[in-house]
Amino acid sequence: MATKLKKTDVVIIGMGAGGGTAALPLARAGAKIIGLEAGGRYTPTDFIADEIRHDVLNWLGRAKANWEVPTVRSSPDGVAEKGQGIIMMNGVGGSSIHYTGQSWRLSPYNFKERSETIRRYGASAIPADVALADWPVQYDDLEPHYDHVEREIGISGKAGRIKGVGKDSRGNVFEGVRRREYPMPPLRNSGWTDLMAGAARKLDWHPFPGPAAILSREYKQRPACDYHGFCTFNGCHTTAKSSTCFTTIPEAEATGNLKIVTRARATRIETDSAGRATGVTYVRGGQEFFQPADVVILSTYTYENVRLLLMSTSAAHPNGIGNAHDQVGRYYMAHSYYTVNGLFPGERLNRYSGTGAQQTCLDMWDADNFDHTGLGFIGGGTLSASMENKPMAMATTTPPDVPRWGSAWKAWVKANANSVGGAFVQVPSMPYVDNRLDLDPTHKDQYGQPVIRITFRIGDNEQRLVDFLTPKMEAWLKTAGATQTWHDPVYPLALNSHAFGGTRMGADPASSVVDKWMMVHDVPNLAVLSGSTFPSTSSKNPTQTIEALSWRTAEYITRHFNAVKG
Amino acid sequence: MEAKESDEGPRTGLRRRDLLRRAGAFGALVAVPAGLVAAPAVAAEERGEVRALAATEAGTLNAVLNRLIPSDASGPGATEAQVARYIDRALAGPFSDAAPAYAAGLAALDDYAAAQYGAAFAALPPATQDLVLGDLEAKRATGFVPDSSAFFEMVRMHALQGMFSDPVRGGNAKFAGWDLIGYPGIRMDYSAHDQRLGVKLKPAHHSAADFNIFNPKHGA
User: Fold this and answer.
1) Which residues on A lie below 8 Å from B220 (Cβ)?
2) Among all residues of chain B, which has the CA nearest to that of A228?
3) Which end of chain A has fewer CB atoms surrounding its CB within 10 Å, N or C?
4) Nearest CB to A50: which of B70, B196, B208?
5) Do B194 and A405 lie within an 8 Å CB cutoff?
6) With an 8 Å Cβ cutoff, is B200 touching chain A?
């Protein structure tokens, strides 16, 4: 029998990028918040620069995520098998601890990809098996919140389009119009990022430094980045990475209104006979607790958001919360990671240092920044050339004509390991009607609960985009001095640290799960925060959009608290 | 993961000094030739002891590692870098799930080598060993479950990890792997100058465990 705790105003499940951001405006407004976090709190010692511990073992995911890795299949009639790869972690700060820290605003186009495609290319340009939908939130709605987040957590970058100022070619001239400059300049340029920026200019392209949730200078008593080279999949031992555990969460805790319960594994969102959320049941140290609350915020990762909704069945929600129209889990999307490598013989590129967010980017072929007429695909990709090539990657990035082991391989890496650079793109997937998440019928986690089953494939749209971008990536590298380029084929990465959809936002309850405020249609005091709410995706990293949406939802809840709690 | 992720694995609990002292004690009582005791006592620390695999399996694995990352004109290989020690500790710790696949795969490897090339893998000349490994890589070798390339890729991946991961994990001894690829070793920061093209940094030869902020006795 669960121990019933004292009622609180708001309970948040998951103190990561979404929940960790939403907590701050709520706490400032005086709401009493309980934050449930499956992991613990980490200190710099835990962020040791050890590729095995972090990149291979995902030690930061040991509390929960590593035990409930979803299964994967490529079609609805296939049998799913356990997936492999690092997807997320657990801890106060969530995956904002170990992410690379690329911090983007989406393009205005990304919020209305369907209507813009129809307007410009006709309805037939959208593949028949794709359920593309405009977002009920547009760029202009989110711009104030993007701005807020950039200042609250500390983002480094160079603006390309400031309102009333016009375009600035030192920044991204394709970005949506912003009200002001970033709070601090971009991360340091390196020899490699300069080389690739110079090559892009030679080609009359528009290179710019990528925006990063990493401090380029001291900001709010946190130090500037030291560029030590173990950023991705690892936490920052100096606090220079703008993870929520270093930014919004401690600020929210300082108000006295946020209390975080660590090692708390949420098992159910409870609802009453009218279907409204009453609180959250969780397990901590083998004991079950019920935390009643007026408002519940579900802000775990995409997979766990869907799993908790589907597992929280009741008389009012026999198929799971928000699932009256069989929408929970639908329209799953993920990034495919695609790299074209280049060999720069005899050149010491020194890419082993720095962070992956230290990069030169090109936005000319992202979104609808170019004419797609006759290309056979919609959407696009942001190209980048970045730092942080760790030792194991240095030793294993070899061209196809070099053996993968033995003396010939060894001689090649001795001569060339520090002379390989890459052009990279995150290929967004379309919301195919068959791509979805559900509960696996056979595979369970260590507590006997079903894990998420992913059904995912990519299609012609993604392949044609890659075919379109590849020659540009090759030309970029060759102009910079590469004598040889090579790449693997693009492949679907079902299990992904950039996972979207499953609790789509929309105006119509029959085709979405949450409304434009991220409140579940038929549970008006339950919010869902994460990439799971995205109706479509883009090439850009999602975190800053998740944080801006979270800020916006938290402000909505505080403004309309009595109406929301009912 | 937490429970499975052991530390450096069981040690004998004996340090070199203890072994020497013990050797001395034995020496006083029974006539153990000094050379037989003292030399292995030193080497045990350096070599690391195989714990997760049987001796014959370890012998076969060592032979495989020596061909994947040979000691040759390019410099030290898997032997000098103690890649086997890395794999051994991993199989006794975080990769314990893979231990049965190693045992089965190494047995299948010896069977295949004997059937096709006339001797157990470790007994074949290096050029023939390379042919055998090529068969595995190309999924041509029979007797493996699910197939030979799955086993080959697993061993190759772990060999690369052992060669190029932080020495705190048991491999990359004397920074042989990092020196091979020109990676200077763990540093707490890189200056703007360090990040320019062409700059050659003196190898720092530091493990992450050398830095106090990461606590040398880290638990993973």
Assistant:
1) 48, 50, 53, 57, 59
2) B189
3) N
4) B208
5) no
6) yes
For CA atoms A395, A399, A402, A404, the dihedral sign is positive
Please, which residues 61-100 of chain B have a Cβ atom closer than 8 Å to chain A?
A: 67-70, 72-75, 77, 94
Share of chain A above pLDDT 70, in %: 100
Q: Give exposure, B102-133, as e/b (b: 16+ Cβ within 10 Å).
A: beebbbbbbbbbeeebeebbbbbeeebbbebb
* Inter-chain touch B68–A347, beta carbons under 8 Å: no
Whether the CB-CB separation of A378 and A539 falls below 8 Å is answered with no
Nearest to B161 among A56, A62, A188 (CB): A56
pLDDT-derived band of residue B39, with 50, 70 and 90 as boundaries? very low
* Beta-carbon separation of B220 and A404 below 8 A: no
Q: What is the predicted pLDDT for the residue at A532?
A: 98
Q: What is the 8-class DSSP label of residue A219?
A: B
Confidence of residue B106 (pLDDT cuts 50, 70, 90): very high
Out of A412-426, A510-524, B206-220, least confident range: B206-220
- Taking the C-alpha atoms of residue B184 and residue A532, their distance in angstroms, rounded to an integer, is 41
Q: Which helix (H) or strand (E) holds B126?
A: helix B126-137
Q: Other C-beta atoms within 10 Å of B17: how many?
A: 9
Contact A57 B220 (CB under 8 A): yes
Instruction: Provide the shortest C-alpha distance from residue B104 to chain A (in Å).
Output: 22
Residue with more model confidence, A159 or B29: A159
Upstream peptide bond of B146 is cis (omega within 30 degrees of 0)? yes
Residue matched to tokens 């079609």: A75
DSSP at A56: I
Number of Cβ within 10 Å of residue A293's Cβ equals 23
Contacts of A44 in chain B (CB under 8 A): 213-214
The C-alpha of B83 sits at a distance from chain A's nearest C-alpha, in angstroms, of 14
Q: For Cα atoms A76, A77, A82, give the angle at the middle one, nearest 5 degrees.
A: 75
Which residues 126-155 of B are in CB contact (within 8 Å) with A? 130, 133, 137
pLDDT for B3 beyond 90? no
State chain A's mean pLDDT as an integer: 97
In the numeric block, the tokens 């279907």 are attached to: A275
For residue A73, the surrounding DSSP H or E stretch is strand A71-73
Q: Give this complex's ipTM.
A: 0.93
A450-455 and A436-444 strand pairing: antiparallel
DSSP string of A281-340? Answer: EEEETTEEEEEEEEEEEE-S-HHHHHHHHHH---SS-TT-TT-TTS-TTBS-EEPEEEEE
Strands A519-520 and A523-528, by their bridges, are antiparallel
* Residue A418 DSSP class: G
Torsion of CA B144, B145, B149, B154, to 10 degrees: -110
